[in-house]
Amino acid sequence: MKKFSDIRLILYQEQHYQQYKIAERIINSAYAAGKKTIVYKNDFELGTILENIKAGYCSKEVLILKEFLGRKFQKCPGSNNVICCNYYLLNTCFNCLYDCTYCFLNSYLNSFGIVQFVNLDELSTSVNEYVSTYPRNLRVGTGEFTDSLMFDEVTGIAEELISSTCSNKKLFLEFKTKSANVEHLLNIREKGNTVLAWTLNTNYNINLYETGAATLEERLTAAASAQKSGYYTAFHFDPVIKYKGFMDDYYDVIDAMHQFIKPEGVLWISLGCFRYSPGFKDIIKHKYPDEKITVAEMFPGVDGKLRYLTRDRIDIFRGLSDRLKKLFPETFIYLCMEDAYVWNEVFGVHFNESEDLENALSNHLIKFSR
After folding, report:
1. Is the pLDDT confidence value at 110 over 80?
2. Is residue 84 predicted with pLDDT exceeding 90?
3. Residue 55, Cα to own-chain centre: how many angstroms?
4. Going from the N-terminus, what domains does the chain have, and what CATH number goes with each?
5. Residue 240's beta-bridge partner residues?
6. Is the pLDDT confidence value at 109 over 70?
């Protein structure tokens, strides 16, 4: 599993080091000792530096500390014509230590380095203020454009967010990861409704498509430790990727979950099949010439993304959800970015819009609020 130790170069602005505690924390960290650092004056100079170092560094080895001028707290954009869970996002970082073939971040061809945002001091205030006026329980997470915990022991983002929002009983704060990096969070006393969540896949897919991430056993072991220390957990089977015998392998993953994890501590599990936007295939074929993920027959869905046949997806979701319901009967199981027809065929529920799913999930979470 890749860690902060795999970072070789850190770039930052002097004024940010003095102004933002996260920049100071990273630069002064024992984890940063011995790493090369470069101070840049402005974005133009940063661009020049990056062009000059590309021959000597891989993108995943470079950490750029930078202000983020966009929206740091926003609703997940979801996808057109499908049912979404109305999740909310905290933008804390862009890019990731891990190199997942299917990741949509591969679409950003001009992106180099992992960009850690430093102006995050007001995140918890924004969340607490928004939750106070929100009519339902609110799920908020940090893992849309990065991995939430890949080197969180250095940034301290999770601990600060947990400590400053844990008293808010309507908030379910999720940190989604493919790492096993939870040790630094286990002794936090007041955890509130914090959820540590793992994206899971079969060993076959992890080995082929999730380079640098933790193994399946490492993830489940970390999840068991999180539960034991008092955290809620959640899991995401997304993307489910087809290959010969894949369903039996996914059933084995679910059975392994049940061996490691207490079902009553799992709040939600999502299911989503591999999908991609037009043009993405050419991008990953260029980056990963030997990839096998796009050889399956894919067809445009209601949102324009390429997907497995509807009937195939329904069969996959039925099989996985049936197995999950037997072993995790109190857990809310939902589909990620599927249309109303698929929802009805899999679960027999009539969700006509995203608010229907959000309301159902919010009502489920009422009994877990503490």
Report:
1. no
2. yes
3. 30
4. 68-111+119-368 (3.80.30.30)
5. 273
6. no
